[in-house]
Task: inverse folding
């Protein structure tokens, strides 16, 4: 990997992180297009550049999080199922799914179709909340 590759990875990450698409999937595909092998260094580099986006979100919402502990508690409760599923399926995902360009392409296609269909079928409910802090704990796990 050279400096040009690093710049291209940075641009792909910067553009795709704040869109409702998988920045990780796009980084995997970018590596394939640039013919950069998925070595441990490349995987670590992809994680490192994603940390920049994570830190920017933290910086953006830092004051909101510090002001209201209800938000932190709700985020933690919402994170628990994801963490459990992640720990259970970590080896399976890492071994068979992550880095496989066919899986990534199909996932992006199916995920994109799901988002389009959801957007077409979604109707705003009257009891919509404007704040994360006002979401009930049971509302975190309710289906949309």
Result:
């Amino acid at each position: 990997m050279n400096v040009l590759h690093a710049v291209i990875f940075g641009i792909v990450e910067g553009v795709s992180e704040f869109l409702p698409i998988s920045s990780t999937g796009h980084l995997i595909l970018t590596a394939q297009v640039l013919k950069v092998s998925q070595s441990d260094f490349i995987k670590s580099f992809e994680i490192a550049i994603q940390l920049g986006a994570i830190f920017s979100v933290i910086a953006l919402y830092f004051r909101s999080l510090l002001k209201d502990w209800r938000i932190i508690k709700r985020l933690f409760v919402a994170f628990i199922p994801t963490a459990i599923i992640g720990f259970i399926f970590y080896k399976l995902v890492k071994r068979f799914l992550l880095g496989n360009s066919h899986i990534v392409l199909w996932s992006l296609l199916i995920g994109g179709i799901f988002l389009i269909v959801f957007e077409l079928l979604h109707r705003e409910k009257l009891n919509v909340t404007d704040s994360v802090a006002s979401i009930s704990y049971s509302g975190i796990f309710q289906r949309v």
Notes: The chain has a mean pLDDT of 82. The radius of gyration is 18 Å.
